[in-house]
UniProtKB/TrEMBL annotation:
SUPFAM superfamilies: Nucleotidyltransferase. One of its GO terms (molecular function) is nucleotidyltransferase activity. It holds the Pfam family NTP_transf_2. This is DNA polymerase, beta domain protein region. InterPro entries: NT_sf, Polymerase_NTP_transf_dom.
Length: 83
């Protein structure tokens, strides 16, 4: 978890930002992102909490320059809480 909830600065209506580190083929990013969005929607429906899930592959975590947004990985490393 990262962002305001990890830092303890969230409001009641703040979303929950989750980075999910994965193994496997990067070509699956679209499919996995879609599946994560479906789960996030179910959580929203059941709890009212908005979840923003970001799929990351281990190679991107180890080498942020390979991720489309390396600044996001820096933020996750700085503020993140492992769940």
């Amino acid at each position: 978890m990262f962002g305001s909830r990890a830092r303890g600065t969230h409001q009641a209506d703040s979303d929950a930002d989750l980075a999910v580190v994965l193994d496997g083929d990067h070509a699956e990013r679209s499919r996995i992102s879609g599946e994560m969005a479906e789960v996030a929607f179910d959580i929203l429906r059941e709890t009212g909490l908005t979840v923003q899930a970001v799929p990351l592959w281990e190679s991107e975590w180890r080498h942020p320059e390979r991720f489309p947004n390396p600044i996001l990985i820096a933020s996750i490393r700085r503020d993140g809480v492992r769940l």
